[in-house]
Amino acid sequence: MLLGSGQYRAAEGQLAPLLGDPRSRLYRAALLTRWRIELTEAFAHAAGTAPHRRAMRRLQPLLGQLIEAGRWPAAQWRSLAREAFAIGAYALSAKAWLAAARRDPASARQDQERAARAWAADGRSARGGRLLLALAARSHDPVRQSAFFLHGMGWLEGGAGAIAALAAGRATLAHLPGLWRDRAIVLFMARLALAAGQPQRASRWLSAALERRPVASRR
Question: What is the pTM of this model?
Answer without folding.
Answer: 0.86
